[in-house]
Amino acid sequence: MLKIVFTDLDGTLLDHRTYDYSPARPALAKLQEKHIPLVFCTSKTAAEMIPFRTEIKNEDPFIVENGGGIYIPTSYFSALPVETRKSDHFLVISRGLPYIQLQEILARLSGECGMTVQSFDQLTASELAESSGLSLEQAQRSLQREFDLPFTIVSLHPNRSQLEAKVQQLGLRLIQGGRFFHLSCDSGKGGAVAQLIGLYQANLGGPVRSMGLGDSRNDLSMLEEVDIPVIIPNPLSIAPLADELPGGQRAHTPGPKGWNDAVLSFLENELIEKGKLNG
Ligand SMILES: [Mg+2]
Fold it and tell me: CATH number of 2-95+188-276: 3.50.50.60, 3.40.50.11310, 3.40.50.1000, 3.40.50.1100?
């Protein structure tokens, strides 16, 4: 059965502070050697993901902006029974609302809640670089968003539940990542993961065994869709994944070292599928 690994990046494959992934090299090499797809599933933009994929020599599809879009290399699947648009070497499945629409919605709803927010479209690249630890070039790529609007809440005593309720009424989603809140489409990472698993199954004509790794609450829906969910501990996340995931297994170490050990265990069939934990 084909195995597939879905992974978050920041705080999961990449160290939360330094963005280093070198402790994960042994598992990355094993995945490549065994031709096991490694699908990045992050809140990052395609502009950020494409150079990173090249650096890490990854040639698999990837999910951007918290499930807002799926980028699939042209000719990766023999059949793609879904509407796509072409962008350079990729076919793109759009799952979210256009970015400009999200900006308008956040501005309106935060105003209705009497809340001051600072969203990505109000930031310059150098401001983002300073607050996130990204380089200026990385910050520029991070601001090239298509589907998902990250923001911080500036108000001291914000009425978050009121904002959440208004967002839900519109069929959208408010989630907390490791550094930012995100306004995005309702299905989040999970909907995109489920769609991509379906595409793999349709192309293979059979089932797959999927693993997922994540560190924050915005990874929960992704982890719910995979056979083997692994939580990477992240003491620095503003929204760590606690024990809210039935059947979730916890890596022993944060960041790329924990990631490496968990993926190697998956490849050795040492991890238990969540459906089999109680039975
Ligand atoms: Mg993360």
Answer: 3.40.50.1000
Given 8, 15, 148, 215, the catalytic residue:
8
Distance from the CA of 23 to the center of ligand 1, in angstroms? 17
Sign of CA dihedral 123, 129, 132, 138: positive
Amino acid 276: pLDDT:
67
How confident is the model over 143-155, as a mean pLDDT? 93
Distances (CA, A) of 250 to 25, 234, 266: 20, 11, 13
CA of 214 to the centre of ligand 1 (A): 6
What does the radius of gyration of the chain's CA atoms come to, in whole angstroms? Answer: 18
Q: Which two tokens stand for residue 134?
A: 């990204």
For ligand 1, the distance from its centroid to the CA atom of residue 212, given in whole angstroms, is 12
Burial of 203 (0-12, 13-18, 19+ CB in 10 A): middle
Count of CB atoms situated within 10 Å of the CB of 156: 6
Single pTM value for the model = 0.88
List of residues 6+ apart from 88 with CB closer than 8 A: none
The CATH architecture that domain 99-185 belongs to is 2-Layer Sandwich (3.30)
Is 121 catalytic? The answer is no
* Ligand 1 centre distance from Cα of residue 229 (Å): 14
Query: Where along the chain do the CATH 3.30.980.20 domains lie?
Result: 99-185
Enumerate the CATH 3.40.50.1000 domain ranges in the chain, comma separated.
2-95+188-276
User: Is pLDDT of 279 > 50?
Assistant: no
**In angstroms, rounded to a whole number, what is the distance separating the alpha carbons of residues 247 and 144?**
36
